[in-house]
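Task: complex structure prediction.
Instruction: return structure tokens for all chains below.
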Amino acid sequence: MGDLIYLIILIGVGYFIGTLVEKKHYKSIEEREAKLLYLPAVSSENLLEEKMVNEAHLVYGNAVISTDYFKFILAGLRNLLGGEVCAFETLLDRARREAILRLKEKAQGADIILNLRVETCQISQVGSIEVLAYGTAVYYKK
Amino acid sequence: MKFIPREIKTNVNISPTSPVKDFFELVIKILGFILVIYVGLGFAVDYIAPRISTNTELRLGKLFSARFEKKERTPAELQLQQILDELVKKSQGLPPFNYKVYLEESKDVEALALPGGNIVVLSALLKEVDSRNALAMVLAHELGHFYHRDHLRGLGRSLVFLLISSTLLGSDSSASKVVTNAVTNAEMRFSQVQEKAADLYALDLLNKTYGNVAGTTDFFEKMLRKEKLWSFFYIFASHPYPASRITAIKENIKLKGYVIGQKIPLAVEIQEVSSKK
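Output:
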């Protein structure tokens, strides 16, 4: 019985703190995305308009986000039965957007980011994931 | 092509389902699945337990008795063994084991039937019996479990279930421990019927051994006085409520016309153990 209470407490704490952290993170992501909206980051390898390029260099951003205990258990249960692991969707979404935001922040003053690529990997067994976004920051001749 | 910045309000990458709802749905589905396996296993174990050969059981028994065999036998244990030998000699239909009784220091009032003919009496139980007959009743009750092969049945499902949960969830996970505890409790509750059957077996065996049934209800009467307040909790316990056991035993004494007779006092060696604090 003690074990069950321990488990329920862990899941409960995981859920409430996890949700709180996630909400805060999303708020920050949305604010920064709005701020950096002017800077296009595209997967195209070529310029979208005819411009003279002054400078181009590699930019990247990466983010490591960990799961909470509630999501961890939820995904574990899902592993038994199969199906969509909805628990990790927000985790990946946050990591992806955070990585692209950091990439844009690194490319200050650029006019466009070309050839944007996003890669992901698992960092540890408990469910931390890393997303790496990289691309080419292009500065036009003014 | 001109780039026009546009904010996207919706997020297609996140499912609209609530994670809490998802969680409860999964828990219910998995519990249902486990229940089906559990019930299925119950049938399987009931089928297998009576068919386990004595050799296999002896091998299982060695796993359990290994920790008791190392110690030298105390005088009280030898006395207990004497009572057990008397009973075994008069018994019929018991699996052909070398029946042994061990005494373990413990505050719990309990006796256990382990595979391979091993009986463990916990020392606090000796404080609750005041005659050789009452003690023999307890030992005969455990022999009843061997006769009905209950000890294998109970053990079988717990063992198989533990195996499943540890495979699915990992043996160290706290979830696995929760499952094991829950299963062990459910298993014990399930065996109340078996406890009563063992009581009746013990009654017949005592009558055969001593020619009377003196002291057969003593132990339960003592427990009843002690635990009167706790009757409600007995639905959760492994043994049936003492009162219903006493009634069942008394009814059987009347039905079979057994003589109640004289009690035999406990051996000094056992009295020494029971008077220890």
